[in-house]
Amino acid sequence: MDRRTPPALSELPLQELQCFAVLVHQLHFGRTAGLLGVSQGRVSQLIKRLEGRVGAPVFERTSRRVELTELGRALAEQVVPAFEQLREGFDAARARAAAQDRPMRVGFQCVVYEPVARAVAGLPEGPPHPPRAVPLPSRHCT
To answer: What pTM does this model have?
Structure first.
């Protein structure tokens, strides 16, 4: 592959890497499963598949503990910050989207009660509130 061409997302084992990143922090398969909303067996599957792709174990596991191998620590140094950066980027995009001025639309079915119509009509116009358009309600449902 040309070094200037990034790998396609389909080539990256994102679910496995996400599972790895969470397990690095938790060092517990059950807690990792709970955080990811999957079964403990699925966490084990994902880690085994990742280890198969890497070519060596990334965790040492016993019935009492889970620890990173040297290779696992090296992988974690790359993967964990990358996932944190992705999360921060996504959170920042969501915050910007939430801060955008967008009209608020309110719909009514059939009858609009007079107190509701007065409350909507009484909303202030302009920032920080969106402009309003209050259509006159019809008296009958069609």
So the answer is: 0.63
